[in-house]
Amino acid sequence: VFRNSNGSIVGRDVDGSDIFTDVYPEEESLFGTVISPTEGFNVISKSDSLKVTGELNRKAFVQVIDNQELVYSDSTAMFDFYISEPMIGSHQLEFIFQLDEDSLYSERGYIVFDEEINLSDPPPNTIEGVNYYTDSSYIFRLYAPEKQNVFFLCPQNGFIPEFEYLMNKSEDGKTYWIELPKSIFLDGNNVYQYLVDGSITIGDPYSSAVLDPWNDPYITNQTMSQFPDYPDNADGYVTVFDLQEKEYDWEVNDFKPRDARNLVVYELLIRDFLADHSYKSLIDTLDYLEALGITAIELMPVYEFEGNISWGYNPSYHLAVDKYYGTEDDLKQFIDEAHKRGIAVFLDIVFNHAFGQSPMVQLYWNSKLSRPSPNSPWFNEVPKHPFNVGYDFNHESEDTKRWVKRNLEQWITEFRFDGFRFDLSKGFTQFDSGNDAGLMSRYDASRIAILKEYSDYIWSLNPDCYSIMEHFADNSEEKELSDYGIMFWGNINHEFSEAAMGYASDLEYSDYKVRGWSEPNLIAYMESHDEERMMYKLKTYGDSNSEYNTRLLETSLRRVAAASAIFYGVPGPKMLWQFGELGYDFSINYCPNGTINDDCRVDPKPIRWDYLENEDRKALYERISDIIHLRTSFPTFSTNDYTFSDGNFYLKTVHLRHPEMDAIVLANYRIVNSDINPKFMREGTWYEYFTGDSIEVVNTQEKLTFGPGEYRIYTNKRLTPPNGFTTSTVDPNFVEISLGYPNPIHTGQELTIEIPGNSTIQYASFYDVNGKEREIQFEQHNQSLFITIPSIPKGLYFIQMTAGDGLNYTSKIVVH
């Protein structure tokens, strides 16, 4: 009988009766099937009975043999009986059907265990996952409340459950564990799975590495050569352990990230940043990022996610490094190399949800409703908020909290990450807001307590580690957490894009003080992975008139620089999205076929290192670098004593006051000339940072005329402008030349400079950004000048070289 879901439409035979059809023709030879036990793994307690049923197409002689002992025989077409009080251990059932010359044979297996014998607590001081228990043994632990039995699967048993691999069950019935000799995991056999209740096969939820049969074949051989082959008979994700012959040997053991006021974070997705998407190439790119001036890198999720081509917000194994980017040691080396350069590394972590390949999801799954089951220790059956994807964690559960802390502990102690960006932290709530986003954002005391608890745990492991939330809740909640020391993403994409495009804009919410916060814990950003690219907006929607068009490439790049001047001028930590410093102008919704579609949001985007070959884009990089180095080199730009004047929708000013130096940042975001009152804090001489020009201020209220998109930074102290020396310290006839290598450079390293022509250098000296001279020692061989960098404070320096032929040269260098 065929029916639709509500029974309103019914399909029957032509006469209205039920439809019958023969399953097999009556004249066929002997045919039979075993219905119970099923194929696969059957596990029962010794107090249970095993139901055995089967059916044949005709009456025949049936024999059932259990471990070579006859337990049933009869001449029948259908059998149905129980094996009561079976012996503890592994069993093999043999089924023999015989009719005249025809005979059939089938096998089934089952295992009988004694709950009393296997009931014991794991040894103290062991944790979930693999434990190095003794010199000759491991202990494996799985947390699985309300489950009946768990088998350990490995190459030694061919990934088929065997009685001796039945795991012990703790007295409270929540934890399963087994001690096994190390010898069975030799020769690349360091892989395993768990079989739970005879039907759920999973990798270890606490895996630090996994084999993925569906996606690993598309990962480079160089990466996969460090992993064992995927084992025969396994199904799904397989846990791998003991991959490294020895622990990673860290070179930097005392790294401390910059103070929050000096944080300039570079957010990147390795997949869309480097053609080979590898940590090894990312290490090679650190020189570029160091020269840019950033003080921290934020990696989008790098732990095991579903598929390979992903942003990483669909996690499956939160503790396993995803091989698409490289190995565990590759990641550690990248962090180590970043620390050598004074750059912190943050990890984007996804604790709001997990996806269906997560073993924690699979352990407690309601197949009828396709969602987590009510008894899941970690997940809600139904999400509690409208922004959820995947399956929603219950952060009021102590099991979830324990699991989150285990994650944080690994990434801090094993990998030495310096901070964490909590994705969708506003979702860490058990208040059910349904589809009401506004209701979700309201002050939530439970959520506040949860985030404080996680942050406290981070700081207990590393007091200097940053706890950063992607939150966007009511300001009262964010202020309370900010006062507690937690940092927040601050999305100012729309406002700064409007300003750059030439439209009225209100930028004040990029100022933590405007929000009423007492600490600079707002990481403001003009772009992030989630926002439309500013350059795309400029080139697509920018304003224009007959004489000035913000949509032209050269103009739009300068508008981004103008936006950057005010953006970085406001004190507080900042974030820059990858390639923003080069004016990346592909839409966030760019599709591989060249169209623009919302469905392509997370698709791979063009990787455009060739932008550096464009002089206008390179100029933007240098200008943003100059601004970043300025704000990280002088305490003026971290001052608490500042004013952000945002009363005019087009003309913006930032006044910064500090005992060492005062500064003013100004910008005209109109597309026509405009007069700006800079409101100089005092009379006297002020110096423009980019040009080196000076003005004598007599009337502090006298207005200055700015062209469309023009910006300036004035200081009351002469600084070396980024495009050369001031005339007070350097002869204007000096010729700027490019440095050799390396640049940036560390004290004690040797710098090589190629000298033009046949000049012989007779004198060389350093100038810091304040014009202070430092004489240096050098050697010249042919046209190569070799300088050992002395022990000097890190920062931007200029080298002045005087040659015997009367020529003079200058060059810039960054010292760390």
Features:
816 residues, alpha+beta, six-stranded mixed β-sheet, 47 strands
Write structural notes for this entry.
By secondary structure, the protein is α+β, with helices and mostly antiparallel strands. The strands form twelve sheets. Strands 18-19-22-27-28-29-30-31 form an eight-stranded parallel β-barrel. Strands 3, 4, 5, 6, 7 and 8 form a six-stranded mixed sheet that branches. The protein has a six-stranded antiparallel sheet with strand order 32-33-34-39-36-37. Strand 32 (642-645) and strand 33 (651-656) form a beta hairpin. Helix 7 (398-414) runs parallel beside helix 9 (445-461), helix 12 (534-541) packs across helix 13 (553-569) and helix 13 (553-569) runs parallel beside helix 14.
Average per-residue pLDDT, rounded, comes to: 93
Question: Would you report the number of β strands?
Answer: 47
Return Rg in Å: 34 Å
The biggest sheet, with number of strands, parallel, antiparallel or mixed sense and barrel status, is: 8 strands, parallel, barrel
Low-confidence blocks of residues: 724-732
How far the N terminus sits from the C terminus, by CA atoms, comes to 79 Å
Structural category is: alpha+beta
Dominant shape: elongated
Tell me the β content.
Answer: 25-35%
How is the largest sheet built, in terms of strand order? 18-19-22-27-28-29-30-31
Indicate the percent of residues in helices. 10-25%
Please tally the helical runs, counting DSSP H or I stretches of 4 or more residues.
14
Chain oligomer state: single chain
